[in-house]
Specification:
Shape of chain A: globular
Strand content of chain B: 15-25%
Number of strands of chain B: 12
Largest sheet of chain A: 5 strands, mixed
Distance between the termini of chain A: 54 Å
Helix content of chain B: 25-40%
Order of helices and strands of chain B: EHEHEEEHHHHHHHEEHEEEEEHHH
Number of helices of chain B: 13
Strand order of the largest sheet of chain B: 4-5-8-6-7
Radius of gyration of chain A: 16 Å
Strand content of chain A: 15-25%
Helix content of chain A: 25-40%
Oligomer: heterodimer
Largest sheet of chain B: 5 strands, antiparallel
């Protein structure tokens, strides 16, 4: 049985024919839409490498069926920079050494964008760490990640203020 | 993962009809079910996707002071609903202590209630498990079982229920609204989950086709808002299931506990309401000696199911801690480390 779904991925509407309902959103992105920036770590919702935003909310793309997301608006790591201009969270990860091998980084960055949008952590490093606990980093770059998130949050808050001024 | 038929009904009635066939299972966000399917633990023949059913994603404040939480409300949305967190702070704290931010954004409250045990032998398809295969035996009983049940277990099954959310809910007399083949009915959350006995494969009182459509908390549950905590010991500070947890809610007037509510998590196949302990707390001044007595009573029937006798002592200490912190007062905001006994909020040194 075939399933026709439509998704908006990084601002582009895609009509997709699925020949199998078992396809997760993660596998759809990587294997069928060639968006391999989103990583498959554990594939069981434990590591956060597959984090993407659906309707602006961070989720684990390995634990949702693509067919169930019919109509959704999805943002992946490929969709956050503006041309060559990095997203402030990406720039902050570089500035603060928020990674080593880089495998978890797309998930970390998407999770950080989600965290900042949720607006619950403020400038409290403890709340940032707690809010990022769904993303594991086997290299142990956590200290840099926390600093990167705190700085990116400041940068984004300032640019929001400039925009509303 | 075995293949399945996927349907997305438009109404609750259609959903119940579609799920009433043998081998059918409801799919909400799937954060637990897809994991189980990938592991070969569950292999439904049909998934009935309920995520688009209308009207089930609302939090309604009822005229009588109670609250009705639609089954599709996401854990994160409920925890961050300011009015909800103010009125039922131990529930908000429990929600925020569970899983990760990504999972809380996806997971629904209805699914949370029905999540399956995290017993490693249940998850490991080659292991003997009476839940997966009735009569197969229980490899946990003489296996790695330090995290297993100390209350209400049987020789057939020593698994625990993993939910944080359910622990304060059961303490606050939550009710589950169910739509089934014979119409709508209500069940106290305390009566929804079953202890294993000889039939651990029957985990709840739900029948085939039954769909949880809402959870309700009564107005009286608001009476504990000033002194309510959820405290949870984990093997790491965040993103881990409870080794042991406790929800303590007190109604304190003129220095006396008028009414106490107490429930434990991580100790049994269901969220464990400690009514006898509640009774000894009512009418006395809150103090540590009384809390210790209550904790002893709460765990009076506990016995190790393996290498987990430590949980009986730990649970008593967590009960005392939760009652002490509840007495100190509900924090204005959920602490940075929700439910952590190591959190640096006022009162945590007690």
């Amino acid at each position: 049985m075939n399933f026709s779904i439509s998704l908006t991925v990084n601002g582009v509407r895609r009509e997709i024919e699925l020949d199998d309902p078992r396809v997760t959103l993660l596998d759809l992105l990587r294997e069928r839409l060639d968006l391999t920036g989103t990583k498959k770590g554990c594939d069981r919702g434990q590591c956060g490498a597959c984090t993407v935003l659906i309707e602006g909310r961070r989720i684990n793309s390995c634990l949702t069926l693509a067919v169930s997301q019919d109509g959704a608006d999805i943002l992946t790591i490929e969709g956050i920079a503006r041309g060559d201009q990095l997203h402030p969270v990406q720039a902050a990860f570089i500035a603060h050494d928020g990674f080593q091998c880089g495998f978890c980084t797309p998930g970390q960055v998407m999770s950080a964008i989600g965290l900042i949008t949720e607006g619950q952590a403020g400038d409290d490093p403890e709340r940032v760490r707690e809010g990022m606990s769904g993303n594991l980093c086997r290299c142990g770059a956590y200290a840099g990640i926390t600093e990167a998130v705190l700085e990116a949050q400041k940068t984004l808050a300032n640019s929001d203020q400039r925009r509303s001024a | 993962m075995m293949n399945f038929d996927y349907v997305r009904p438009a109404t609750v009635a259609e959903a119940v009809a579609a799920a009433s066939e043998k081998g059918a299972t409801y799919l909400a966000s799937g954060t637990n079910l897809l994991d189980l399917m990938k592991g070969g633990v569950c292999h439904p023949r049909r998934l009935v996707d309920v995520t688009r059913l209308p009207g089930l994603d609302r939090v309604e404040y009822l005229a009588d002071g109670g609250v009705r939480i639609g089954a599709l409300v996401r854990n994160a949305d409920l925890a961050h609903d300011a009015e909800f967190a103010r009125a039922f702070p131990s529930v908000a704290e429990a929600l925020l202590s569970g899983a990760s931010a990504q999972l809380r954004n996806a997971a629904t409250v209805g699914g949370n209630v029905l999540q399956r045990t995290r017993c490693a032998y249940f998850y490991d398809a080659p292991s003997a498990c009476n839940k997966r295969w009735p009569g197969a035996g229980c490899d946990a009983r003489h296996g790695e079982n330090r995290l297993h049940a100390v209350l209400g277990w049987s020789e057939a099954c020593i698994a625990t229920h993993p939910s944080d959310f359910c622990v304060p809910l059961v303490a606050l007399d939550a009710v589950v609204e169910i739509e089934g083949r014979n119409g709508r009915r209500e069940v106290a959350l305390e009566a929804l989950h079953r202890l294993p006995g000889d039939t651990p494969e029957r985990e709840t009182s739900l029948e085939r086709g039954d769909l949880i459509v809402a959870l309700r908390l009564p107005a009286e549950a608001r009476g504990f808002a000033a002194h309510a905590r959820y405290i949870k010991v984990r093997e790491r500070t965040s993103y881990a299931f409870a080794v042991v947890s406790a929800a303590a809610s007190l109604r304190i007037e003129q220095g006396t506990i008028r009414e106490a509510r107490l429930a434990l998590g991580g100790v049994a196949a269901k969220p464990w309401r400690a009514r006898a302990a509640e009774q000894v707390l009512a009418g006395v001044a809150p103090d540590v000696a009384g809390f210790r007595t209550a904790a002893r009573i709460a765990l009076a029937d506990a016995k190790p199911s393996g290498d987990n006798a430590f949980k009986i002592e730990l649970a008593q200490r967590i009960v005392v801690r939760a009652l002490t912190l509840a007495t100190a007062g509900t924090p204005e905001r959920v602490p940075a480390l929700p439910a952590s006994p190591f959190s640096s909020v006022s009162g945590s040194a007690a």
